[in-house]
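Please predict the structure of the following assembly.
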Amino acid sequence: MVRTRVGYSGGTKKSPTYHDLGDHTETIQLDYDPTQISYKELLEIFWESHNPGSRSWSRQYMAAIFFHNDQQKKIALETKDQVAARIKDEVYTQILPATMFYLAEDYHQKYFLRLEPELLNELTAIYHSTQDFVASTAAARLNGYVAGYGTRAGIEAEISSLGLSPAGNKRLLGMVSKSEPARPTQGCPLPR
Amino acid sequence: MAMKILTARISFSEILILVVTLLAVAESGTLSGTKEGTMMKDVALLKTGIPLIDAAAPAKTETATFALG
């Protein structure tokens, strides 16, 4: 995963905000290296990360795949059919064309990393602008690690490339157990 | 004139040895230079503070957008 960002998409309202979302949906946008992971593999993770048989009661929190081209649309529809066959029920997850993506407010970006000021400060000392910080692969990786994703072996393999100080490295390693880390139990980011 | 004298004094086998030696030195120098160059680049990046993983980010990426409900 090269970059991650959260925002609002799928609606018609111009310049939505968290408190004035209009008809948009909360979304996550990823830039990935197709030589490292395929769109189909991303979709497998996506389908495992939500309950497709659960109806969304608001457009803000609906589950959806926003496809960026015909190939993505084809794969999305194929996997939706496979999921429907597996759960033997209706799939409520929407397959929609990607439209304008509005970046969410700063405090939503790299949410889990923001819960670790010691690590956050090291990255923001390098990237003074929010735009650069959000676009940082290191920030995306750290956000994932802090949230409990990844493995200790994976972290150890790339920790020297994350731009942290020796103290930061120690802090990060201290946060992960010797075994596979657990998934996070925290809920969605709350607005300030 | 000096070149002529030099050529006359060096045999074919000596030239061959010289070429092989020069190639070996050149290769060794190149490899060493590459490693050194990479290290110097890494050090330069570390000085700017840009994480190496960001400096090495692929130029060509694809985008995916999801909503998880």
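Confidence is low (pLDDT under 50) at residues 184-192 of chain A. The CA atoms of residues 164 and 185 of chain A lie 26 Å apart.
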